[in-house]
Write a structure and sequence with these properties.
The complex is a heterodimer of chains A (113) and B (112).
Chain A (H helix, E strand, L loop, with lengths): L3 E4 L2 E4 L5 E7 L5 E8 L3 E10 L2 E4 L6 E3 L9 E3 L8 E8 L8 E2 L3 E5 L1
Parallel strand pairs in A: 2-11
Antiparallel strand pairs in A: 1-3, 3-8, 4-5, 4-9, 5-6, 7-8, 9-10, 9-11
Chain B lengths: L2 E3 L4 E5 L4 E3 L2 E3 L5 E7 L5 E7 L5 E3 L5 E5 L4 E6 L8 E8 L5 E3 L3 E6 L1
Parallel strand pairs in B: 2-12
Antiparallel strand pairs in B: 1-4, 3-9, 5-6, 5-10, 7-8, 8-9, 10-11, 10-12
The chains are: A mainly beta (113), B mainly beta (112).
């Protein structure tokens, strides 16, 4: 199993550009989520999904869109990048019942200039 | 609102010394509690988790944590630290659904 994979590893965007961060998992997990990590703030939940076709907002959803058309994939879209979205982004997956370990991808480091 | 507090931003210990990283949480229901470790440039790896039962839980790499409901704490301990333990450590509480609320993290430095 590859686990949770994320692409790209690094990305630089200009303000106003859009892009999609890719996330895929091969563990047949129902639950997938996106976090952003900023220094001194830990990880904060952006969006999550409990299954294909079902998504919901987390703590910091503004400026991001998600969709879940398959169990395996959960892309994160930045609609119009802003410098405040400079961060490290992690995708995670798990079984949906509460308390199960979440498996994290290696992260995408995004810089918006 | 749910929250997790890790009071120490940085901790430095000597190799071979014992370690305790503090974590306090605020959550109305019985919590699921986790400790994750992140090496530089890497993703997060689960060290251990508490769901119910025995309040002292054992994890990987020789770590353990004790859940104390009366203190709303879930401190991480290791009896003898190795240089390879230098990393950032995150405490998290699992809330409704399967969402995680993370603390701000504690950076561990190990002196040789």
């Amino acid at each position: 199993n590859a686990g949770v994979t994320q692409t790209p590893k690094f990305q630089v965007l200009k303000t106003g550009q859009s892009m999609t961060l890719q996330c895929a998992q091969d563990m047949n997990h129902e639950y997938m989520s996106w976090y952003r990590q900023d220094p001194g703030m830990g990880l904060r939940l952006i969006h999550y999904s409990v299954g294909a076709g079902i998504t919901d907002q987390g703590e910091v959803p503004n400026g991001y869109n998600v969709s879940r058309s398959t169990t395996e994939d959960f892309p994160l879209r930045l609609l119009s990048a802003a410098p405040s979205q400079t961060s490290v982004y992690f995708c995670a997956s798990s079984y949906s019942r509460g308390g199960h370990e979440q498996y994290f991808g290696p992260g995408t480091r995004l810089t918006v200039t | 609102a749910q929250s997790v507090t890790q009071p120490d931003i940085h901790i430095t210990v000597s190799e071979g010394a014992s370690l305790e990283l503090r974590c306090n949480y605020s959550y109305g229901a019985t919590p699921y509690l986790f400790w994750y470790v992140q090496s530089p440039g890497q993703g997060l790896q689960l060290l251990l988790k508490y769901f119910s039962g025995d309040t002292l839980v054992q994890g990987i790499k020789g770590f353990e944590a004790e859940f104390k409901r009366s203190q709303s704490s879930f401190n991480l301990r290791k009896p003898s630290v190795h240089w390879s333990d230098a990393a950032e450590y995150f405490c998290a509480v699992g809330v409704e659904g399967n969402k995680l609320v993370f603390g701000a993290g504690t950076i561990l430095r190990v002196k040789s």
